[in-house]
Amino acid sequence: xxxxxxxxxxxxxxxxxxxxxxxxxxxxxxxxxxxxxxxxxxxxxxxxxxxxxxxxxxxxxxxxxxxxxxxxxxxxxxxxxxxxxxxxxxxxxxxxxxxxxxxxxxxxxxxxxxxxxxxxxxxxxxxxxxxxxxxxxxxxxxxxxxxxxxxxxxxxxxxxxxxxxxxxxxxxxxxxxxxxxxxxxxxxxxxxxxxxxxxxxxxxxxxxxxxxxxxxxxxxxxxxxxxxxxxxxxxxxxxxxxxxxxxxxxxxxxxxxxxxxxxxxxxxxxxxxxxxxxxxxxxxxxxxxxxxxxxxxxxxxxxxxxxxxxxxxxxxxxxxxxxxxxxxxxxxxxxxxxxxxxxxxxxxxxxxxxxxxxxxxxxxxxx
Length: 367
Fold this sequence. Notes:
Elements: E1 2-6, H1 10-19, E2 25-30, E3 43-45, H2 51-60, E4 63-66, H3 73-80, H4 89-96, H5 98-107, E5 115-118, H6 121-131, E6 135-139, E7 149-152, H7 158-165, E8 170-174, E9 180-188, E10 194-196, E11 200-205, E12 208-214, H8 219-235, E13 240-249, E14 252-259, H9 269-272, H10 277-285, E15 298-305, H11 311-315, E16 320-324, E17 334-342, H12 345-355
Parallel strand pairs: 1-2, 1-4, 2-3
Antiparallel strand pairs: 5-8, 6-7, 6-8, 9-10, 9-11, 9-13, 11-12, 12-15, 13-14, 15-17, 16-17
Helix pairs in contact: 1-10, 3-4, 4-5
């Protein structure tokens, strides 16, 4: 079985590492010569729009997938004309545009922040009256890890935010004073079979995920999240892993965004679930039976941003698992992650109290 992956970051790298025990072969397409997935699978260095390289990848592969949602939807559609592509290009296109994404949620009965499209300063001023401040102004496309966003707290913030972001189509969303941030990772196979991982609690700093805990022990919210995930998977005739990020407010879920791919908040599944999100994504797109998503004890995943602490110090912590992505350290860059797994939440917390100071955090910050 041959799988082509468009995008060569750490997600493609972990997909390949999960696939080799299944006897799967990989080729990676990415514009960067140093794409980290190229360390574990053959790399085709090319622009995503290069017709000859897309044709070559389609001729070699049995199925093509992608490792991040900013792969041009046009490239996915071009591949769909030649070969099976999972998840479908429609899901990729919807996730690339926050307006389309929020509209889909609304149509599916999934709660969202109040939102309005913005294409001019006048529209922003009008939208601010309808949505009400505080609100968050976001670029509709290409935003991730907190990029392309400005919080509007007063009317005086409107014009500076427009000057900063107004060169692109925008969306204004009501600011949600959330109690928690959580996510659901789900997977759907060729035959419509669906498997869902436990609800995960996430903690961010500067718009970047820093810590995930699983399972987070909120069964009613978990059932609600599973219901929303099933609706989206079926509506999109989806195949593969889909992640949905939510805010928790007044005991209910409010959808923030979806990711049509394996997801950072699911990295804990490599050690902490019976079948990892990466293996299940491959099983889904290759038409294989899905694996169990049951959690093995309790887990926490800590991102390494900019750099990773020393291996020996981390591995001295009971239940610690070290994942380096083969990237050059750089401020703000995800260069690896560390997972802690134990039989109970108290043991995981004890490990976090040793680990978090190594990555620049106080244990109290994420209590």
